[in-house]
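#struct-pred

JT: dropping the chains for the assembly here, can someone run the whole complex?
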Amino acid sequence: MALGEFDLIAKYFSPRTRRAVLGGGDDCALLQPAPGQQLAVSTDLLLEGRHFLPTVAPELLGHKSLAVNLSDLAACGARPLAFTLALALPRLDEGFLEGFSRGLLALAVEHDCELVGGDTTAGPLAIGITVFGEVPPGQALLRSGACAGDELWVSHAADGGLGDARLALEVFRGRVALAGEAFSEVRVALERPQPRVALGLALRGVANSAIDLSDGLLGDLGHILERSGVGATLEYAALPRSRALAAQPEGVQQACLLAGGDDYELLVSAAPAQRDALQRAARDAGVALARIGRIDAEPGLRVLDAQGRPFAHGLRSFDHFAP
Amino acid sequence: MALGEFDLIAKYFSPRTRRAVLGGGDDCALLQPAPGQQLAVSTDLLLEGRHFLPTVAPELLGHKSLAVNLSDLAACGARPLAFTLALALPRLDEGFLEGFSRGLLALAVEHDCELVGGDTTAGPLAIGITVFGEVPPGQALLRSGACAGDELWVSHAADGGLGDARLALEVFRGRVALAGEAFSEVRVALERPQPRVALGLALRGVANSAIDLSDGLLGDLGHILERSGVGATLEYAALPRSRALAAQPEGVQQACLLAGGDDYELLVSAAPAQRDALQRAARDAGVALARIGRIDAEPGLRVLDAQGRPFAHGLRSFDHFAP
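RK: done, full complex below.
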């Protein structure tokens, strides 16, 4: 027999209220912010067919739904505290809920981020998460802090790089063929992104600006440039890429590296004097950082090839409403 | 020419950042909680066809989307601070966005609740709002505080009552016929609910428990009883009802009053000694409060008719997944 809505919420999403003063089950959750800390808040809405494939394993979907939100906290240098979950489901499918909640809550525990409330309804599969973190006043990493002369860095897995998620998506779409092992490597980037929370915390006071790569490198770097009132030069050859992506035709590499989307790596700018501090932060956080360019006083975004010549790519940022 | 996603967000939803340290446009919004205050958080996901009719005017939809969330803050006695908006839209319809944002932001200004961030995507129309408020520690109104001997009260408009929203919905569904003027009166309850924020604030220290009526009186009272470990007796004849509803057949009245849903009135319990304080709070907040029953030590929910006899109604709470 199908469970009712309230039983369902209780069975799979019983809020963990170790830190919250009051978790789910009341009209509101109650949190007690740490004295003096600022609260960082971000919200994301994920829709089937638009943000994830209908075939994705529920556990991976649960993981990714929270990961993309934690990635926003990471980009601000905020420490995760709590999140709310709004879930629209076509039907009460316990198999889905079991897997989804397992993936979601495992990542939540890993980052000490408590589920404190939510809403469940019937409808086309949609996942809305709002996440809260804390950051000391004045220490948040912002998009607006980039300075001319800063160097640009991007995080990546030791054996990975940018664009793997997009490459995997193109395989799912049937536009790119990849051998089994290479596909296994890149689909992890798409289905199980690791939010760079520890790196974001370690970069407080080190980086001048930061953003997480969700819409693609060019588009997201564009946000930093716009908010900071600066320009930038990217060195295309310096962009970190996995073996699987490096084996692809040049056009595929370009699209995945420059406009791939779904990377959830941190793109940061920092003064050249911070090189050692950046590398320490990356080592402590267990990720790699690649230096991929610099911030210029001159507006505009330039991409150079390995010979230092302007690189024609004709790509633009990802737009959810693009045809 | 259609606006791009980022232009769209900027044009209609430019966050008001008077209170927020940092509003939209970065990875996170940053809020500075007032020292010592607790943060009340609630989230709701509204879907077309499920929570609102496709024909509703965009301005009214914008109003209601925030109203139902503010109602959760009201039920906790929390003062609204800020909210995030996640919006899925089938297409970039500027007429819709103009009206929706107008209704949404007008209510936000009225309650001094700032839009601090959001997410926009293409998809079936869905509106996800997470709202934040503040409340002094220990002063939040909870579902769990009802005590045997408490009296039960429900808020209502001076000329309205419970069930009007449901009555209007049944008219839209073609199951009930109402003359033009009566329909105009009740459809306001459905399309433009007024969150009882001022009343919630005034009831701090006065009420022992509170909930907002979103799923219907029986179901929502059931939540209080369950969380408080008590029972209750309702006096059916004491339930406030509008002239339009009072003119309906008894079966329609019962369904609308006891299980209508979408009322967004506050149901509270308070010690009999608080009668004067309750009436003062209601007067100050500009709403009416009707005494509709009492909390019992004996578990279970009893409904009595005007002669004090058990009232057979056969109704149950609203379940989003019920067939």
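JT: nice. The first strand of chain A starts at residue 29 and ends at 31. Confidence is low (pLDDT under 50) at residues 317-323 of chain A.
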